[in-house]
Amino acid sequence: MSGHEIHWLALSVFIFFFALVTIMGFVASRWKSGDLSQLHEWGLGGRRFGTVITWFLIGGDFYTAYTIIAVPALVFAMGAYGFFALPYTIVVYPIVFLLMPRLWSVCHKHNYVTTADFVQGRYSHRWLALAVALTGILATMPYIALQLVGMQVVIEQMGLGGEGIVGDLPLIIAFFILALYTYSSGLRAPAMIAFVKDIMIYIVVFAAIALIPLKLGGYGHVFELAGAALAAKNDPAKGLILSGKQILPFATLALGSAMAAFMYPHTTTGVMSSASRDVVRKNAIFLPAYTILLGLIAMLGFMGLAVGISVKSPNQIVPSLFENIFPEWFVGFSFAAIAIGALVPASIMSIGAANLFTRNVWKAFINPNMSHEAESRSAKLMSLIVKVGALAFIIFLPTQFSINLQLLGGVWILQTFPAIALGLYRTKLHPQALLLGWAAGMGVGSWMAFSIGIKPVYPVVIGGDTYAIYIGLIALALNLIVSVAANGLLKLRKDYAIMDQTNATDYEAKDA
Amino acid sequence: MSTPTQQKQCFWQWLLLLPFIALLWLPFYNQQEPTLGGFPFFYWYQFLWVPITCVLLYIVYRRTK
């Protein structure tokens, strides 16, 4: 299946499932019904989601379509290095377990809808809240764009697409449908679709990991062939284990990504929409099931190497592999799973960004007298604008631009860690000091990334030795140093005070 | 200010450091041998830490509020 020949059976199965979730997206507005003219109803599903729904929702939102395309692509290209995604998505859960129940409790108690709302309440400093909000929006936009890349890859593989605006038409139609039901149903739409998406992905991945090694003669043989394919590239950075130089980048990328993951608006939106603190705590225990899935998805990269697939771009490895091994109807099913896998996170991301814009930019700085209805209207509209923006990114700019921006987005969002995570643990740092630290981290992090042509790790020279470290962590270290130093200086002032509207008990408060 | 229960909670939370140590210190597992079911050590060790982390989280879940 290549070129411009259209594959009707695959396409029909694909369209059937796409139509199914479209109907679900619109019906969702009546599910666990609430008054959608209220922002916490539209944007947080009324904070009513139980353990199972939250598990599907966060799982469907954190492990995105782009992940399914990009992780195997990295493994296909680099071998062991691509597996940093596994330690990343394991150590993220202790962090989630410690931080997110506190976030849930304080947000539930004070009716905060966004992390920037929390920062505003915690520090009574609207500029720091604005910094957190804008960082969140900025980091999310390219992330939404990348979900479209996931969708685009499978649409092209089915023989649709091609050059020019006409070629982008299927993508535009898919995204338009997504925008409409997100607009009308809010967070309920992706929550409902997440069920279908995750189950489909589980089926596809289990089929792949059962079928492919069977065809290739077991996992031992898959690793043998993949190892040989990597060794043929004659590059110590490409192999079944890490080269010495890759150890530090691997570890720091895993840690930095884990610390950044639940600072993003889409993941915190998932947390805040839970019905109780206990739902959040339980999910930290059960969500790692998706990490097993991710590890198996990463294995697809090795299977691609073992089969000896050649592709123009590593991003095509997963769809090409599926075409190679699955019957055509199941190819359609698996492509639908990936495309629907793009819809759920794209929808939640646009909702998270829209909530931030409405509460912490528009309401805080332009129109403080907004009614609840006006808030909800503004967020709905903003969710449309954010998505159109992401679509324009993908259609008019090279894909590499979005990939670079998303990488920078990880560095940027990590700079909100001190204000949010330390804030949740009630560390006494003055908001002005935190703002200064944030600015230092953003500035230096971006500069480092640009100076080496937008790559994730920067070679730091300490005492003659070079250490390649994830830029996000270097910037975060600087951010913390500046915050603590500036806080020390501010303390010298007589009027030093942190206006905190929250109490220690708010962070441990149970339901209602 | 911290009550005895809070101190007990803090104690159990230290368990959550284990996945960080086990997975971020690469010399522990950056090797091919021993293989398990065809998987080099580097891979099955990482997979193994998923259920271990779940169990640790469950223990801390039971011991804290």
List keywords for this structure.
heterodimer; A: 512 residues; mainly alpha; two-stranded antiparallel sheet; 21 helices; 2 strands; globular; B: 65 residues
Describe this structure in words.
The complex is a heterodimer of chains A (512) and B (65). Chain A has 512 residues and is an all-alpha fold. Helices cover 73% and strands 2% of the residues of chain A. Chain A contains 21 helices and two strands. Chain B has one domain (4-63). Helix content of chain B is 62%, strand content 0%. In chain B, α2 (18-24) packs antiparallel against α3. Chain B is elongated. Chain B starts with a helix and ends with a helix. The A-B interface holds A 80, 83, 86-87, 90-91, 93-94, 97-98, 218-223, 240-242, 247, 250-251, 254-255, 281-282, 284-286, 288, 291-292, 295, 508 and B 13, 16-17, 19-20, 23-27, 30-32, 35, 37-40, 42-43, 46-47, 49-51, 53-54, 56-58, 60-61, 65.
